[in-house]
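The material for today's practical consists of a large collection of protein records. There is nothing in a record beyond a sequence line and a structure line. Backbone structure tokens are a discrete shorthand for how the chain folds in space. Nothing more is needed to start thinking about how sequence determines fold. As an example, a complete record with its sequence and its structure tokens follows.
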Amino acid sequence: MAFAAAKDGTQIYFKDWGSGPPVVFSHGWPLIADAWDPQLKLMVDNGFRVVAHDRRGGGRSGQPWKGNDLDTYAEDLASVIETLDLRDVILVGHSTGGGEVTRYIGRHGSSRVTKAVLLGAIPPLMLKTEENPQGLPIDVFDELRKGVLTDRSQFYKDLSAPFYGANREGSTVSQGTRDEFWLWSMTVGIMGAHDCIKAFSETDLTEDLKKFDIPTLIIHGDDDQIVPIVASANKSSQLVKDVTFKVYPGAPHGLSMVPEFAGRFNADLLEFARG
């Protein structure tokens, strides 16, 4: 297996497939790189090189006690990119991974990046504050923490329903997809899973978004029950200069793994990468 060494020595696992222009994928919480496998194959089949890493704290990466915050996640992403000396990269981030991509650009700029894709992403800020009344109250995130600490196995089984929209009438989500979500989530250490909740909910990425100077594709489902569109993509699309904003009617948070939406997302991703 391939690893990049983070600044604090944590080993960050990554998969590196294909050849051609590089596309680097950052996954959401509480998943691992395997959540991107269908898109990785799609891009390799169409002439791209793809890289996807397991965020620290889960999967095949190290599980340090500290560093489960967006600044460190962004530096871990930088370590992977620099270890492979990737240039003219297309960055793709889902959910927390979208925050990771955003903070990476905020800290490192776009010298190695040519485009960005934010899917169901957390920026600019998920938490409800006086300045951000569209956000979610802290109680929502406290309940997530409680679920992780109390009975995370059952918590992840339950969370898979709103994540994929399986609790909506007419859902096409299979039990296998929900089981896969549980399997990946259970590889994430309890500390990484717990601390990441604060990272994705309380980190303000407004100023990072203002630093984007590359073409950016923002995609969000308007039935996202995890990262509501009103506090995220609707605002992010107003902060990024060169943006294409696509709203998928009826789509859930994990839309890239739901049959009725995955095909559209794959086509949009490929078109944007080729353009």
About this structure: The CA atoms of residues 256 and 262 lie 4 Å apart. The mean pLDDT is 98. The radius of gyration is 17 Å. The first strand starts at residue 2 and ends at 5.
